[in-house]
Amino acid sequence: MCGIIAYTGRRQCKDLLYQGLRKLEYRGYDSAGLAVLADGRIEVVRAVGNLDSLEKELAGNGCTGASIGLGHTRWATHGRPSTKNAHPHLDCTGKISIVLNGIIENYQELRDQLASEGHKFASETDAEVVSHLVEKHYDDDLVDAVRRSIDVISGHFAFCVIHGDHPELIVGARKECPLLIGVGEGENFIASAIPAFLSETRDVMVIEDGEMVVVTPESIKIIDLDLQPVEREVTRVSWNAEAAEKGGFETFMRKEIFEQPDALADTMAGRLPESGGIVLEELAIPNEELAQIDKVYIVACGTSYHAGLVGRYVLENWSRVAVELDVASEFRYRDPVLSPTTLVVGISQSGETADTLAAMRQARSQGAKVIAITNIMGSQATRDADGILYTRAGLEIGVAATKTHVAQIAAIQLLALYLAQIKKTLGSEELEAIIAELKTIPDLMREYLKNESATHEIAKRYYQQPFFLYLGRGVGLPVCLEGALKLKEISYIPTEAYAAGEMKHGPIALLDKGSPVVVVATDGHVYDKVVSNIEEVRARDASVIAVATEGNERINSLSEDVMYIPETSEMLSPLLSVVPLQLLAYHIAQLKGCNVDQPRNLAKTVTVE
Ligand code: AGP
Predict the structure, then answer these.
(1) Domain of residue 340, residue span
(2) Each residue of 431-468: pLDDT tens digit?
(3) For this structure, is 255 an active site residue?
(4) Per residue in 522-533, pLDDT tens?
(5) DSSP 437-493
(6) What atom of ligand 1 comes closest to residue 303's alpha carbon?
(7) In the listed set 183, 209, 244, which residue is the last one of a domain according to the structure?
C-alpha cells in the first residue's frame, strides 16, 4: 500500500507532487508528506491524516523554488499514524530523503545494527532504515549506495531517493511493489501508479521486479541489480486524466457504480463475436491443454474472492469442472493438491495484492497452470501468470470495489463459457442463448440505475440500525457476502452474511423485532427454499429487505421492502443483484456522513501480507 511519487524537471515541483499524491490517496491516507530539494537543502513537510491536512501544512510553508522532490501518502504498517512516522524520511545528515511503499521485513535487525553504528532514528517505521542504509553506503555515488542497500534488505518494496549533492537525480528501486516512470519532455516522474502523473504525461515505462531506475530531467536509465542497462519501451496509455476525476458525481464510488454497464460491455467487447462463440485471446494457454483441465482452483481476497465464489457456480454448472476456492492468505500457507491439469485462477483488480500474488506463484511452482483476472495492465499478477483475462472496468479510485467486481464476475463467466465451449459441456444452442443474454445485461443495468430512488428510501428507513444480516442461497450467497462487505467497509455497521439454510444453526439468535435482514431472493431453482428462510426470519419479527426479480408480486407480502432487478437467468443474476446492495450500502454510508471513497483503515491496493 502507500503511494509514492517523485519528480525531477524544470518546473516548481511542490504542486506537481501534491496533485500527484491526490491521485494516489486511495492507496492510503493515514499521513502524507513532501520532501523538496533546492540549493543543496532538503525541506520536508508532513501531516497526519489525508491530503487535506498536508494541504494546510503546505499553505503555511515555502517549499517553493525546488524542481526536484518526493511525495508519499501512507497506509500505516510499522508505527502508528503520526507526523514523525509520516514519509519522506531523512538520514542523520538531512541530505538524503526517501519515500517507500512496502515492508522491510528485517528492519529491526537493520535498525539495531545501524543504531549500534551511531545512526539516530527519528521514527518507528521500517522505511526509515533505508535512508540510513543509503547514508551508510554513500560515497559520492548515490546509485551505488542504493544498490548496496538493496543487498541487505529483505521484504518487498518500491522506493525513491534524493540527495542534497545531486540536484537533479532520483534513484528508484523496485521489488514486488509497483513502480512506473512517467516520461515527460525535460522532466520525468516516478510513481506507484499511473494516475499520479496522468495529467502531465501519458507516456509510461514499467520498472520490473529487481530493477533500479536512475532519472534526471533529460535521462532515464533502467538497470538491473548487476548495474547493467535494461532496454524498456515507452508505452502510451489510453486513459485520460478525466478518468481519474469525479465527472460530476459527488463521490468516486457513486461514479463507479454508474459506470458498471460500461465496465461490463467493455469486458465483453470483442470476446463475443457476431459469428458466435467466445474468443479469449490473452489466455495464451492452448485449447488442447485447457481441454485437459479437471480442476479449477480460484484464489483471491475480499471482493475479488466474492467474484470467485460466483465463478464456482458457473464453472460447475456450465463447464462441469470441479472447483475449489480459497482466500489467498489461507491458500498460500496450506498444502493444496495441485497438478498440471489444475487451472488456478487468481482474481485481483489491482493485480498487486500480496497474498493473491503469493498464492499464484505457489500454484505455478507446483506445476499448475495459472490465469490472472485483473484490471491493471502490466500489473504483477500478469507476470506471475501463464495467461491473462483482463477486466476492462477502467480506473477505479473508490476504495470499495464496485465496477471492477461486476467486471470480474463477467470475466469468470466468460472463462466458464470458454471452457464449456472447449469441453463441449454445453450444446451450441444453449451456449449461444447464454451469450445472447449476457450481451443484454449492460443495457438492463443501465435501465435499472435510472431508478435507484427506491433503494435510497429504504436506506433512509434503516440507516440507524446497529446490525444487518444478509442471507442468500446458490449464486445469491456470494452476492450477500459482497453486499455485507460493502456495507461494513463504508458505513462501519457490523454485518453478517450467511447461507440462508445455515441461519437456523446459529445466526438466527441475532434476530429481534425489527432487525434488518437483507435477503437475495431472485428467481432460480432455490427460490422456494429462500422463501422458507424468509418465513423463519418473519417469525422472529425481523424486517425483510428482499432483492427479487421483477414480476414477483408475491415477495411483497413476505417482505417489508423489495428492491427489484430485471429478469435474468439464474447464473447471470449476480451481475444485476449485487447492484442494489452496492447502492444500499452507499446510501446508508452517505446518510451516516461517512467518507465512502476513503473508508477508515482501508487501502485500495493491499501490497502487504
Ligand atoms: C473491496 O471493496 C475491498 N476494499 C477489498 O476487499 C479488495 O477487494 C481486496 O483487497 C482485494 O483487492 P484486489 O482485487 O486488488 O486483489
Answers:
(1) 255-442
(2) 999 999 999 999 999 999 998 888 999 999 999 999 99
(3) no
(4) 999 999 999 999
(5) HHHHHHHHHHHHHTTTHHHHHHHHHHTT-S-EEEEE-TTHHHHHHHHHHHHHHHH--
(6) 8
(7) 244
